[in-house]
Amino acid sequence: MATVVDLITYPIKGCAGTSVDGGAYLTPAGLAHDRSFMVVSVDGVFRTQRRDPRLALVRSTVSADGSRLTLASAEPDSGHGALHLDVTTSAPRRDVDLFGATYQGIDQGEEAAEWLTDLLGAPSRLVRVPPEHDRKTDGLTPGTSGYADSSAVHLLSRASLAHLHTRMAERGAPPLAMDRFRPNIVIDSPPEGAHGEHGEDWAAEPHAEDRIRRMTIGAAELGYTKLAVRCAVTLVDQEAGARGGPEPLRTLAGYRRFSAGGVVFGAKFSVVRPGKLSVGDEVAVEEWGDAER
């Protein structure tokens, strides 16, 4: 057994996440408003922390109905005051490039563009997923998502992070915050422990999430798509908005290499049945499988 200990949404792709107090609605495209906005260059190419680590300094909140967006800087004394925007879904669509694939975006205007350009030090625009967005994501369980890298939901366990920290400590490296990995759902063993038919306290086993094939959380159901291949974004200190040292990729390369290339940490899921889920909900695994290698 396991329980949800954190729910994090990232309204703007590549920018800071926000923990959801209590509950959230899981839509077919992920947590409500997750990655529904994206920062792009003037040519429409998405910006990423791989090249623009200062994206991590952008804090954003969206009103429940999605009509208002607030941008704020996490940089002390930056001079970037909060910007409150009325979200538009009626402006003309424009082409945007996400990993070489072309999608549509709705430009959110000059104020947002100027605010982001000034903070990032590079000409930028802010776009929103159009209501008619119909993106198909691949993997074992196909689904849809907004501007996420691939599948709608990224899940990670505290046990996996603790195991990584143990291995990093053997190399003399300090632990890292969970936000380096930018999960949507963080799970852990319930405080009193649990014993399920698949094994005693499976949530205490590092990388148990790799073997989940179907699960329910609250009223929602999720299906496994693929392992999460990690990139240079994990090297970015999310509080400082700057690239740090070689961890965690250096340590992960020693024990989490994936046969298809890269290193993996955490798992991605599609939404099979939308519904509300909350911190404290039990993660009920309906189907297990063998971990991909």
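^ that was protein a. below is b, sequence first then the tokens
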Amino acid sequence: MRPLDPYRSVKAALGALVIGSVVITTFLVFVAIHSATGLRVITVFSIIASLLITQFVAHGLTAPLDEMTEVTRAMARGDYTRRVGAGRRDEFGDLATAFNRMAADLEAVDTHRKELVANVSHELRTPIAALRAVLENVVDGVSAADPETMRTALRQTERLGRLVEQLLDLSRLDNGVVPLHARRFEVWPYLAGVLKEAGMASGSSPHSRKDVHLHLDVSPPELTAHADAERLHQVVANLVDNAVKHSPPHGRVTVRARRGEGAQSLDLEVLDEGPGIPEAERDRVFERFNRGSRAHGPCGDGGTGLGLAIARWAVDLHGGSIGVAESPQGCRIQVTLPGGPRDQS
């Protein structure tokens, strides 16, 4: 531990410096009075002792600033792994803690940026290469431009469209330019339509999962909610798509809706029968490009890792909450939307 670490304030350290200098000077004067030592000699020794103490304390005070300067220069060169010592309890310790937090955030941003380039490049390359191969076969006469070939090309085009839409949503998320148009609606027919679209999309996907059964459970049947229907569609569609991808063969995905605590509030759950999400990954599963361990399972295609991040963003827009809940089997995602005032018409 460094000598100045115990001090909780820079002012306390400076006060200790002054007190130390006064004590030494007083001691030397006391020695001069009771000895034959001249006043000039005592003065010289007093000045030298004060300078040494001041230099010692000043070095201890400025050492964190020198360390921060060195780390800042390393960050300017692209090295975000460096940190400064944060063992002190004074203002410099608080500054070091805040500095390390900023460095960690910058490191995370740099990592996300690199992952964005790598993941988007990979996700774009796959459907583009498949689409190019289909079109080259048609142009070269290897394949005929029959409905089946065109459906293959269409599926790859739709996959590209979904990726571009996710990237646009991500851009809107960062810029905060998406307004919320909340309205009152009936939950059963709304969710039934979302699940029907999800079933159709799953059937036309390159990773088709027609064997997974989608089940809707709304109670009471006349349940209504107050939310932005388009944003809620993103939430449910992404959660269902994620659940279908990780369901076992002939599995079951259940979307459950219940009335929340507030007026027109809504509690949603999406449950699957897959391997579930390990507890250690539950805090990070909604981060961008975080595919998790389930992405590499036999039933998952990996995806971009944007679906759950977009779902959390849409829930946050409503002022609600989303998270992974305990489940005896598979994965259970809980969504709570606070709702709004009842329709007075």
